[in-house]
Amino acid sequence: MIHLEKRPQPSKFWAGVTPILAVIATMVAGGIMFWMLGKDPIEAIRTIFWDPLFHETFGPYSRPQLLVKAAPLILIAIGLSLGFRAGIWNIGAEGQYIMGAICGAGVGLAFYPSESLLIFPAMVLAGAIGGWAWAMIPGLLKVKFGTNEILVSLMLVYVAENLLASVSQGLLKNPEGMGFPGSRNFRDFPAAYNAEIIGGTGMHWGVAAAFVAVIFTYILLTRHILGFQVRLTGQAPRAARFAGVKPSVVILFCLGTSGALAGLAGLFEVSGPAGQISIDFNSGYGFTAIIVAFLGRLHPIGILLAGLLMALTYIGGELAQLMLTLPAAAIQMFQGMLLFFLLAMDVLSHYRIRFNKTAATVEG
Amino acid sequence: MDLGQINPLLLLASLMVAATPILLAAIGEAVVEKSGVLNLGVEGMMITGAVVGFAISVNTGNPAVGFVGAALAGAALSLLFGVLVLYLMSNQVATGLALTLFGLGLSSLIGKPYEGVKAPSLARLDIPVLGDIPVLGPILFRHDPMVYVSLIIVAATWFVLTRTRAGLILRGVGENHDAAHALGYKVVHVRLLAIAFGGACAGLGGAYVSLVRVPQWVEGMTAGAGWIALAIVVFASWRPWRVLLGAYLFGGITVLQLNLQAAGAAIPVDILAISPYVVTILVLVIISLRGSHGAPGSLGRIFHATH
After folding, report:
1. Which of A174, A343, B107, B248 lies 20 to 30 Å from B205 when distance is taken between CA atoms?
2. Contact assessment for residue B33 and residue B163, using Cβ atoms and an 8 Å cutoff
3. Residue B272: is it exposed, middle or buried by C-beta count within 10 angstroms (0-12/13-18/19+)?
4. Distance from A24 to chain B by nearest Cα, in Å?
């Protein structure tokens, strides 16, 4: 008889090993899925995980994309991980990402065609504030009225998507765009363009911001009282209250930070890789970042690695679409599977598996 | 604007059609939550039900078979969630989200070949005598069979939950799983059945969107209906008849905003389009002002039997 015995503390060893096991399990299950779709599984897996980095023709193009795609995922996931640690579920990062992009781009476009050096910093600030404000809605509602933040933050994603459609056809529409929806392209607006810091590497300001966020969060969680309070709230809410932690402060801090970071991610994306506000500007980073946060074990360094891996599946997925005509949705499913395997394997870090025949009679 | 274009009779009649998908998903989720499990994967199960129901209907030419297939697909997906949260004791919030993300990917994978295809329509069931009653007839008694099926499910759920022993056990498991376990009830089995029921209902609700409401397959077509269903369960304080009320109120708002859009109301289209989501938030706020009444005691908590 197999039974599970709760560990007094989660195993550090298994917490580190299970993400790797989950990736391997996903590759196997994904391989089976690709085979069922009539593709060669080995070739598909190689196209997704190997070719973007090491293929001689695609590699040079794909490698910089790794940082471009990983930056928003890491920025958003870092913010989400704070809340997830404290049991505060911000599911609406996608909406905060959109609002950050709209606010930041709006500020930039308002000053077109100025050449002032202050424009880009002002856009960054506006982007962060936009995301922060959008996340404050579920935050304040939860603090004031105890409203469920999961549902409110998610509903606001749909509101933000509608706003995005509205501004790209109205308020922010390119006046010289011949009536097509979408804003001016930031590539034609150098003072507001989020250019590469080092050419040809994909290293734009958003990537730099992601690295800074990783370092700050690491310090916050290990060295600062606020980080301690966030961790305590998640692990032992009652103990946290006795220790004088104010739940409302933790809630507003976690939601506000994750909103601001998601807003930043949106701003850096719209002013750089995406180039303009358009109806389909958002591409689901806010949701994929949830997978990244869990895959990274809610740990800043883990999230950094998980973000890079997830970016690889995006780029590899695009490559596989091109080379093997693999449907785009297969990659989305692949990412969903990864989260499933990860959560399933979590059991190993929280429980010991015991194989015993007699325990049942002994325990009565 | 010409509000005279809006026919109140048609409005009320289409209200039931608009509300049915959410009603089906919400009544299933209410049972799941009554057993103490929070499944946030409703959206994923709905969209999977939508695509599977659509695909099967197109291939067999029979929407009824499609609905059965959708229910089975929803249930199968929900069992994946069930195994994870009940046997591997994973976090319910995270696993539910995983289910939604997975379902969205799965559905667009299955649905690719069916984009732009027309589904066989579900014949309307005109109830002979009742359907001829003036005013009430067209509103209540001239719908497709699924509208009535959804009402029967609500009534049956109410009956089982409040009037039978099985319902008592289910509620007991949800209220205090340790006590139920101590009394000898199989907590995990009860919850697995509840989860499968919830999945089947969500699948039916999804299929209703793709086969009746729209009727077409469009990627991501449930557009948050699963999440709204979750909100309605909270609104309803986990009671079947209030789920019905909540879903119909919500259906009313949806239909009204669509009609206002069509009538060219002075309110901008964007404001109207976001109204269902904003109203959901407002409703959640009002509910939380009242305090959470009737939430099952063990909702969302992990059950681990030590012996």
Report:
1. A343
2. no
3. middle
4. 18
ipTM: 0.84
Chain A interface disruption, residue of B81, B284, B287, most A CBs within 10 A: B284
CB contact under 8 A, A145 and B288: yes
Cross-chain CB nearest to B285 (options A4, A145, A157): A145
In a domain, A23, yes or no: yes
Residues in chain A closer than 8 A to B307 (CB atoms) = 360, 363-364
Q: Specify whether A289 is located in the same domain as A349.
A: no
Average pLDDT, chain B: 86
How many other β-carbons are positioned within 10 Å of the β-carbon of residue B204? 29
| Contact check, Cβ <8 Å, A148/B234 | yes
Judge if A33 and A131 occupy the same domain: no
Number of domains in chain A: 2
How many other C-beta atoms lie within 10 A of the C-beta of residue B136?
13
Domain B3-119+126-289 maps to which CATH number in 1.10.3470, 1.10.418, 3.40.50, 1.10.8?
1.10.3470
Q: What is the least distance, in Å, from the CA of A220 to any CA of chain B?
A: 24
Segments in B217-268 forming alpha helices (H)? 225-235, 240-262
The model's pLDDT over B58-79, given as tens digits with 9 standing for 90+, comes to 998 888 899 999 999 999 999 9
Residue of A nearest to B86 (CA): A344
Assess whether A154 and A275 both reside in one domain. Answer: yes
Using the Cβ of B265 and the Cβ atoms of chain A, whether some distance falls under 8 Å is answered with no
Domain coverage including residue A14: 1-37+327-364
Specify whether the CB–CB gap between B74 and B229 falls below 8 A.
no
